[in-house]
Design brief:
Radius of gyration: 26 Å
Largest sheet: none
Shape: extended
Organism: SAR86 cluster bacterium
CATH architecture of the largest domain: Up-down Bundle
CATH class of the largest domain: Mainly Alpha
CATH topology of the largest domain: Four Helix Bundle (Hemerythrin (Met), subunit A)
Biased composition (Basic residues): 140-151
Pfam families: Metal_resist (PF13801)
Protein name: Signaling pathway modulator ZraP
Mean pLDDT: 80
InterPro entries: Metal_resist
Number of strands: 0
Distance between the termini: 75 Å
Order of helices and strands: HHHHH
Structural class: mainly alpha
Length: 162
């Protein structure tokens, strides 16, 4: 009888452990669905600049990057709206040349405003980095350019095949 009792206790412990682990995973999934992914330490728009820097430098720049992210958020939203308007104008049937040109012009203006804000902040951050840190940022940019070029070359090659 003691073997059966021990087996039941072990089975009960295993079932409770399994239930606890399952509840933990379910809670994590529900939390992720309800709250979205965890926030990164830096905004995506310029976080790449500081990603490979020393923790002390990242800590120094973090408040500035967060403030800039808040400042450009409305412009990014305007750009998304302009992109949607252009997309809708492009898909309109019949095509309205005037509406399409206006949507494209609006997209160009908002993109230009956003890009100017980003370039200004990049200059501001680069001024605060030492030469080695700027070299790391330049290396990252070169790598990104190669990735974009490679991706573009692959998609062009795929499209060219009959």
């Amino acid at each position: 009888m003691t073997t059966q009792t021990n087996n039941r206790k072990l089975l009960l412990i295993a079932l409770i452990s399994s239930l606890a682990i399952n509840l933990l995973f379910i809670g994590a999934i529900v939390g992720r669905v309800l709250n979205g992914p965890p926030a990164g330490p830096f905004p995506n728009h310029l976080g790449w600049i500081v990603r490979d820097l020393d923790p002390a430098v990242r800590q120094t720049l973090a408040p500035e990057l967060q403030a800039h992210a808040q400042k450009v958020r409305p412009v990014r939203q305007e750009m998304r709206l302009a992109q949607r308007a252009f997309h809708q104008a492009l898909l309109a049937d019949p095509l309205d040349d005037v509406a399409l040109a206006a949507a494209l012009n609006d997209l160009e203006q908002t993109s230009s405003t956003y890009q100017a804000l980003m370039h200004s902040e990049m200059l501001n951050i680069f001024r605060k980095l030492n030469p080695d840190e700027r070299a790391r940022a330049a290396k990252f940019l070169r790598h990104q350019d190669r990735r974009r070029k490679s991706k573009h070359d692959n998609s062009t090659a795929t499209q060219a095949k009959p």
